[in-house]
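Same chain as my last thread, 183 residues:
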Amino acid sequence: MKALISKWVLAIFGWSVSGLYEDDLKNCIIVVAPHTSNWDFIWGILARNVYKLKARYLIKDSFFKPGMAWFFRWTGGIPVNRSQKTDLTDRLKAMLKSGRKLQIVFTPEGTRKRVEKWKTGFYYVAIDTGLPIVMHGIDYAKKEFTTHPPFYPTGDWQEDKKVFEAFFADKTPGNPEGFNPVF
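reply #2:
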């Protein structure tokens, strides 16, 4: 029911969700880009529902203030202190060992502002956990969410990043001046 309502809301605003999401893909790293607008969160939550994902997402811990923390936890937020190295990979590995479903969303730009290069933590978490990476693109020109089949990183970042750059290269962000498609 949640998927139908979300699809309906997206359709009212002209958005569509394309691409298949394999039902048996219980555990994966999800990379979403471009991320240049606060609207990305709203459209992204709706698209997540259409894809019928239980994906959780990383968000800076400063959003978890009294009065707001419940909302971000309810929608799947995982607080992360970006100013210091954390035990995130170890926490994710523990979740996998416990048998819990693990679909974690990363926005590798790390912010809605233009960056010179994308963060690569998602890639190394995928390597360390053995999880595939599923890319999700937000295209404001087409008002469309798209997916890429699961990608299993090889450990050769220089080669693997070409797959990411190729997938995201033609996606139009909400705020084009805030997007740098180069990893």
